[in-house]
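A common beginner's mistake is to predict each chain separately and then try to dock the pieces by hand. The better habit, illustrated here, is to supply every component at once so that their relative placement is modeled jointly.
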Amino acid sequence: MKLYGALIAVAAISLAAGLAGSVGALQPLLGIGVPYCALAILLVGLSWRVIRWSRSPVPFRIPTVCGQQISLPWIKSSRLESPHSTLGVIGRMGLEVLLFRSLFRNTRSRIDQGPRLIYGEAKWLWLGAMAFHWSLLVVVLRHLRFVVEPVPAVALWLDGLDGFFHVGVPVLYVTDIVLIAALLYLLVRRLREPQVRFISLFTDYFALFLLLGIALSGIWMRYFARVDAVAVKQLALSLTVFSPSLPKNLSAWFFVHLGLVCTLAAYLPFSKLMHMGGIFLSPTRNLANNNRMKRHVNPWNYPVKVHTYEEWEDEFREKIEAAGLPVEKH
Amino acid sequence: MANPKPEELVQIQYPTPSKGWMDPAVEFRKGTYCYSALARNLNYLGLPNAREWQPFDADWKLPPDWKRIILDGMKERLEKFRSFRLFMDICVRCGACADKCHFYIGSGDPKNMPVVRAELVRSVYRRYFTLSGQLFGALAGARDLTEDVIKEWFYYAHQCTECRRCSVFCPYGIDTAEITMIVRELLNLIGCNINWVLEPAANCFRTGNHLGIQPHGFKDSVDFAVDELEELTGIRVDASINRKGAEVLLVVPSADYFGTPHYYTFLGYLALLHEVGLDYTFSAYASEGGNFGLFNSHEMIKRLNAKIYTEAKRLGVKWILGGECGHMWRVLHQYMDTMNGPADFLEVPVSPVTGTRFENARSTKMVHICEFTADLIHRGKIRLDPARNDRWNVTYHDSCNPARAMGLLEEPRYILRSVCNQFHEMPENTIREQTFCCGSGSGLGTDENFEMRMRGGLPRANAVKYVRDKHGVNLLTCICAIDKATLPPLLEYWVPGVDVAGIHELVGNALVMRGEKERTTDLRGEPIDQKEVAHA
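With all components supplied together, the output reads:
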């Protein structure tokens, strides 16, 4: 249900976008109205979520420490796994965001008779995640050539790098292959590993199918349907300067791609895909392990009922005195 | 009912039912849950909805407006804790945490995967606090809050020891301990607590320590230890209580002066601090470093912790030294200063023996005894004869909180290497930041929960078994009072022939004290020379 439901949902969105895109009268809605709406939802939703997170207080400093603390000068502390300074925290966050440090630790446990627990290396998830996220980033940056004129140097540079192998016409992008392969790996893993399948929700499959749909429709447009890139760029540029004009010869495939991208953009703020913003705010990662060095203030710290020394002494005074211990009041 | 045998318990299946996890039904099977807190303990602490009930009862006698209380409580905590809100929102269910949890490894119960344990709460969060959950229900992973869900929360929030191992592996640092702590707080609002947490908390609130030992009893315990140490070493140490003007306040977990094998560590402290001439005092009011508030609510942490700074101020000490305890140190390191500080009436800790300034504790002003001792050894201030520990072949269990909350990894190892001759590490996936919990932390170390404790402790015990079989290890050292109480039965169950000790027990054994008589026995009163043959 979850799996097929998600597949059907994505297929239905693609079909609807493709069909509507073939009808001339609907093209302005699809090519202009929907992208603006989706972008608005993305920006407002994203800001709303991030602002809400960042405005919620961090009452306690609770890093998950993964290395030696700073203590005695002759014990080498781990600056990245147990950072005690802002610089260290930046380093730790950099490793986490750019290289998925924590995921790199992943292991797989197995229990043999004996009993004997065995922990093996399990780097595939890390590799798949790295491959997916980095190629997606490159793909997105490559798309700058459609929305910015003159085409920014970074887009041209990535374009050249990505097409390094000069295979085929148009040149085959390495990231296209890697992106699809990584998404398929993540999907197959979700289906094949019993534990991961067990925890998967509709939204997990939906996100994967949506991304796969976007990637496949993009690849189809570029290599097979040979969509008129000049027309696409014309539309994109007109949208960016808020004087939208719809070129005549946009193919239905383009609208499938655009429809899926708009779905993703509008869906993102309401989904787990917000993890891309959340990671920066995660209090177990972005705080220094300098708790005893530097006081952390809880903005809502409030007085609580305690058992005061005086109450304690009052209750036990006779026994305290009988035991020969000093008291404040006799 | 007899406890299951190890060979039965180890037949662990890892089922993943096709119907998923949304059905909240839980079976409270003997051996896998803790009894409810007695009403008198709730009443003493002024906690709401005290009543007679047990988890296996069909009717939990929840207050009539329990649902509103829980949802209001969730709302309040979503607004007060960024961690809670964020961890409700950003999990992608990648599954990296699944087999990192000792309770999942040992029980095979799919709801013990950290991700699912959190989803039990997230599903309610989605249903009542997100648009998609309100619109799409189960399709968006949302569930209604029912009484069965409360029972399920109770069951699984008490099958998490807040050890934080999963958060080491989570790519977003989602910390299940944080979620468990919040869930236990919520359950606390409707009077669903466990006695093994609330009785120590109530005792601690009243008398100053978990065991409910009153001041004269505390004095007796300390005096008894002083006498015993004199018998063993020929030296009479001075261990004062509530003495104003001492330089240092020493706070230890109460198990140290009342439990075994903790007690030998206590003797170790007394011997060491006497030998280096530290001017310290105990406090009968702050006679507990442990803080079971951590297993109940943030407010209770603060209520129980307050006495430490209060007493340091009243006695006029310069700084505070803390004994070997795990969760106690999570509170001292990550919560105390924020909750009950600033400790501006104290001074930055300086070891009067070596002159070392503990810059890492310059705000909180509390030093871990392993930091203090490692410094002494490094500066050559004490004489050690590691051969006195030759009957022990030692390994070291990183207690969860000193490892993952503090990063106290090298200090205890440095001490161990100085005080014993045979030391072997357990496999690297089971130590340091990846250390496995004893399976009984966070207030779950009670007898009625025996089966679940043995299951949860399996990964730790299994790593001990590895070094026992490979290197002949016969002693597991650790720096946590709960460890010292619960690892002995765990090891007896899974790895017979391995004892448990604190680091300062071995320090006390190896310590050559000025003017001591010839030591024929160690602090346990057992002959020193007799080298035990390693258990096969």
